[in-house]
UniProtKB/TrEMBL annotation:
Gene name per UniProt: miaB
Uppermost EC category: transferase
Protein name: tRNA-2-methylthio-N(6)-dimethylallyladenosine synthase
Region (Disordered): 1-21
Function of the protein: Catalyzes the methylthiolation of N6-(dimethylallyl)adenosine (i(6)A), leading to the formation of 2-methylthio-N6-(dimethylallyl)adenosine (ms(2)i(6)A) at position 37 in tRNAs that read codons beginning with uridine.
Amino acid sequence: MNEKQRLDNQQANSSDKKSAKDYSKYFTQVITAPSLKDAKKRGKEEVQYHNDFTIPEEFKGMGEGRKFYIRTYGCQMNEHDTEVMAGIFLALGYEPTDRTEDANVILLNTCAIRENAENKVFGELGHLKALKMEKPDLLLGVCGCMSQEESVVNKILKTYQQVDMIFGTHNIHRLPQILNEAYLSKEMVIEVWSKEGDVIENLPKERRGKIKAWVNIMYGCDKFCTYCIVPYTRGKERSRRPEEIIQEVRHLAAQGYKEITLLGQNVNAYGKDFEDIKYGLGDLMDEIRKIDIPRIRFTTSHPRDFDDHLIEVLAKGGNLMDHIHLPVQSGSTEVLKIMARKYTREQYLELVRKIKAAIPNVSLTTDIIVGYPNETDEQFEETLSLYREVSYEIAYTFIYSPREGTPAAKMEDNVPMEVKKERLQRLNNLVNELSAEAMKKYEGQIVEVLVDGESKNNPDVLAGYTTKNKLVNFKGPKTAIGNIVKVKINEAKTWSLNGEMVEEIEPAEVK
Ligand code: SF4
């Protein structure tokens, strides 16, 4: 199909053949802008499950002769959303490219968790302006969590006129329609539903790897931690039905995938929204562990919803990995209260005790925020003491950064930035010390490594991860890629291990 035929086809099939002039009318009738106020009102409407996603006939071929490029920022949820959007692009006939210069459509799949992440996106939009001026037909889009923020959309409308489309996290399945609108319109197309979002099954996915895969088990979050924008940008908690998840994992196992990670903002709340069945993450893991796939992980956990049944199931081991990422955020009950984490220091430590009793070899990692508004020295010391007590193997540490629209952003803060930086440094020293100690214990041990591929820094060396998610670099044959192999560790570094392969333990089956 040539360019003219394609445009004719789109025009003929567009339900609204509008001119640029009457676009504003269309905008108010059909397209909604994001609103934090609406997002804060948790609707009582039931989540709708849609199992009938298809590419509308009139859009098939829309991408012929065109290329797409997606840049992803942020967490695994975003990475996985990119896989879904890539799947939709391919179904529309587009080809992927890894060069922005060659792309006909560029999407920035954004993250709103920290101001820094947002600034990177605005910087990138600035860079892309030159390309857009060179190639006026290029479509430039912003999607992901930033698009759900009113202030971001307003800023883009005002300052980044080179953007052609903005769409939200609940609108990904509408990508064909949004692209179609963007081709036809002279105005910026904005489609961001503040509505809670439904569960859409059958979306195509172009997975990035052939060894590890992500599987969404739920969307959204109802926890409303006072610093976090996610409950507003991702909507309320909605769980996928267990049968859909189990079918997807079975399919991945049949395709030869070796590891799956079950994804959600708060996976421990899985199933709480079901009205017809009592079914939680423990039940789901108990089913999935019976599937013939070597490694199963999940992220991210919220300690409040981590229940005994899940611990009991995880203790069965096998393909359920002995690593749990359990964000604590602070060791002070008072700070946890202000954060609205809904657990105390003691409750968290009791959970850790139960997990360690049931899974003695478990590796625990965490996330910590330092310098929360008005955090005192004593409260910070409690974080350090909790860190030692739990003896985490790694932590992701951050200085608190306010997010507009969250309750914490309105709090007065009497902690100077210098103090926050000093606290972060002291915490990081402790993190490094305990990480080095934990890594040292591996020296001389033989560990099982799922081989991802060549090391990023040296193509003669292979790299992969242990069951506890430790990065291992070692010399071995390229045929080991995609396999689980045994590696003897001969050197521990702070963040990785070096070793030599001692035995390949299963034949390569990755298709
Ligand atoms: S549990 Fe808290 S930190 Fe995690 S996504 Fe929900 S609100 Fe944000």
